[in-house]
Amino acid sequence: MEAIKIKVLPKGQITLPKKIRKALGIREGDALVLIRRGEEVVLRKRKTLFELAGSLPNLGLSLEEMREKALEEIAREREKDLR
């Protein structure tokens, strides 16, 4: 695990170093999820509906059904992160 020092700007903003963005495939406009774990903060790239849809078996699901499945997956990930 690599520790990198960053500063919080006056409006609460931070800059993710370029090598971290590149390594994680984070691009401008990507959505991230911030998870608080006690005294720590974890940032995770948020999965899109299209990424989650690709992981689902072809069950002939409608877009709304895929959305519901995606929300269930996000809820499971959040529960896992809180443990």
Describe the structure.
41% of the residues lie in helices and 14% in strands. The protein has helices at residues 18-24, 49-55, 63-82; strands at 32-37, 40-45. The radius of gyration is 16 Å and the shape is elongated. It has 3 helices and 2 strands; from the N terminus they run αββαα. By secondary structure, the protein is an alpha+beta fold. The protein has one domain (18-82).
Descriptive key words:
alpha+beta, 14% strand, two-stranded antiparallel ribbon, single chain, 83 residues
The total domain count is 1
Distance between the termini: 20 Å
Strand content: 5-15%
Shape: elongated
- The level of helicity is 40-55%
The stretches of 5 or more residues where confidence is low (pLDDT under 50) are none
Q: Let me know the average pLDDT.
A: 83
The SSE order reads HEEHH
Q: Can you summarize the main beta sheet?
A: 2 strands, antiparallel
β-strand number: 2
Per DSSP, the total helix count is 3
Instruction: Give the strand order, joined by hyphens, for the main sheet.
Output: 1-2
**Backbone CA Rg:** 16 Å
What structural class is derived from the secondary structure elements?
alpha+beta
